[in-house]
Amino acid sequence: MRHDPQLLEAARLGDIAAVQRLLVECRPGLQRIAQQQCSSSVDPDDAVQESLLLIYRRIGALRTAASFPAWTFSIVRRECHRLWRAMHGEKAMEPENLPVMVYVDRLELRSDLAAAIQSLPEKYREAIILRDFEEFSISEIAEQLLLTREAVKSRIHRGRQMVQEYLKD
Fold first, then answer.
1. Helix axes 5-12, 16-37, angle to 10 degrees
2. Burial 128-138 (b: 16+ CB within 10 A, else e)
3. How many CB atoms lie within 10 A of CB 66?
4. Domains (ranges, CATH) in the chain?
5. Long-range contact list for 152-157, CB < 8 A, 24+ apart?
6. 43 phi and psi, to 5 degrees?
7. Are 68 and 111 in contact (CB under 8 A)?
8. DSSP letter at 130?
9. Which end of the chain offers a freer environment for a tag, N or C, measured as fewer CB atoms within 10 Å?
10. Could you read off the pLDDT tens digit of each residue along the chain, which spans 169 residues?
11. Nearest-CA neighbor of 31 among 18, 4, 50?
């Protein structure tokens, strides 16, 4: 899947027209990937649609145009797997189905956690956000940040330790 590097850069920098053109251009390639990656019980068009939405939301986090094909492949593969799990009852519980005691509002804890994450050095904060909030896999983060898997694991581990230390204080 080859794309114009200038179009990718414009999309990455937030040019909405560029993002729209990029999504239109990459859709056929995403459909080919979904046809290969999705099991027979998953509709590839659903995986493509969800993938397009994720690409739209996360294009600004893409580090280099060269990583775009592998990045989109990972997104489609993960969506195929997520949809398969949902169809086979392995879906995570939705917030409205969580036990009441888990859904207690703890505004103070949330703000402390946000402050702890914000206090992290950028390299740790970036890894924590991609893993715990954006739900990227270790491989996807490594690809995104141009690091080894081991370096990503180390940053996530150290970042979590620093958050715990912050919250203890």
1. 110
2. bbbbeeeebeb
3. 12
4. 1-92 (1.10.1740.10), 95-169 (1.10.10.10)
5. 152/127, 155/123, 155/124, 155/126, 155/127, 155/128, 156/124, 156/127, 156/128, 156/131
6. -75, 115
7. no
8. I
9. C
10. 567 889 988 998 889 999 999 999 999 999 998 998 888 888 899 999 999 999 998 888 877 777 788 888 888 988 888 888 888 775 444 444 433 333 334 566 677 788 888 888 989 988 988 888 777 889 989 998 899 999 999 999 999 999 888 888 6
11. 50
Q: Please report where in the chains the tokens 């859904």 appear, as a residue.
A: 103
Fill in the amino acid letter for 7: L
- The one-letter code for the residue type at 19 is V
Cα separation of 28 and 98, whole Å?
Answer: 38
